[in-house]
Amino acid sequence: MRIQVRRTGGFAGIERFAEVETSGRADAQEWHALAEQAVADGRGTPPIGVPDGFSYQITVNDRTVYCSDPRLTEEQRKLISRVLKEGA
Amino acid sequence: MKTNGGHEPVFCTVVPPHVLDKLAQHEDPALAGPARRTLERDALERTHRRLTTVIGAPAVAAPAGAEAGKPHRTVYDAGHGTALPGRKVRGEGDKPGKDATVNRAYAGLGATFELFLKAYERDSIDGNGLPLDATVHYDREYNNAFWNGEQMVFGDGDGEIFLDFTIPVDVIGHELAHGVTQYTANLTYFGQPGALNESMSDVFGALIKQYTLGQTAAEADWLIGAGLLAPRVTGVALRSMKAPGTAYDDDVLGKDPQPATMDDYVRTGRDNGGVHINSGIPNHAFYLAATELGGHAWERAGQIWYDVLTGGELKEKASFGDFAKLTVAAARARYNEGEELRAVLKAWEQVGVRTV
Predict the structure, then answer these.
(1) Is B92 a catalytic residue?
(2) Which of B132, B151, B183 is the last residue of a domain?
(3) Tens of pLDDT along B197-240?
(4) Mind telling me how many Å the CA of A41 is from chain B's nearest CA?
(5) In terms of DSSP bridges, do strands A63-68 and A54-60 run parallel, antiparallel, or are they unpaired?
(6) N or C: which end of chain B has fewer CB within 10 A?
(7) What is d(CA B79, CA B87) in angstroms, rounded to the nearest whole number?
(8) How far is Cα B351 from Cα B72, in angstroms, rounded to an integer?
(9) What is the domain-level CATH number for residue B341?
(10) Quick one: closest CA in A to B155, which residue?
């Protein structure tokens, strides 16, 4: 499973992108469960944002969903933080 | 982008928007063409609906017995979590504590309140004594600060690229100014009105810093976020109103993408249609008008911009041209056919925005 996170907006307006390929990983099952739940809670189009808030695009294999700060589910926040290795 | 066998997260750091735009075209067909335009329109409409809802919400009353013309500040600590507002750590009139972040946020709220009251006779964000709430230590290694429609939220930064977001007083002022915009012109946070919304926050954020330091337009650095970048980053700040596009040029962060004039206007769907990018154009116009006039920028240039923001004529979906025309009208209304009017006309002409 390929998990990609793209973050746009924010006070700085600087984008970040990172991805994780889970195949061959010892913790692949954990990643899959997290990614599936994060995508299930996402939206098909970019949701309402707040001024200077981050917007996220999560792509798991071929499916892309959107979410925005500060309204993330726990799974989305955890997945984004893990992939970007940064607070979300 | 690089791969390393898939055993560790692949970290692509911060890629410049124009590179990512190109990448997106290859990687993500869902964003291309008509779909992309549909997404942009949907986002615009939803943002509009949400902001209208926020405006329509009942105003938060000042505390009972609170004095008009005084700030009502509360700083909360999220304890590195994400629940808002978090634990109350400092209320109005409380003595400074040991946490420098809390003290900076408290002082920054006060500085912002002070500028709006003293320069423009505005009692807080809503003009009616709205309590000023801020949460610090939001999340871990959180590289951002934002206004959630009700309060400010500040991250500590990751220490690698960004430091604590309460360090620059103009960042605190920027977030609160989003509140002022929300309660006044309510500029839609997308495309040109969104870039104007961002520019209002940069203009008043910069003015709060200048007011605090007692600087004239000639003495000011006109930087947004000076002191926010970690020492290893090659850059002086996040944005420059004096020279948009020159604030940073770093191997990890990329290059400051801001244009100074309409010739370099960036068309993009990212960042709500480039709200943090094209804000460079109205930002630079304000800088040009303020430095042409000289003296304290919050006095005449700032007054004209404030008159437009709060005057009731500025539409939620205003373009740069709409805004520019209103500044011309505001300059004439307040200062007649004087140097103020000439400075405003010249500033917009220099950035390539038509005022006729």
Answers:
(1) no
(2) B183
(3) 999 999 999 999 999 999 999 999 999 999 999 999 999 999 99
(4) 18
(5) antiparallel
(6) C
(7) 8
(8) 39
(9) 1.10.390.10
(10) A87
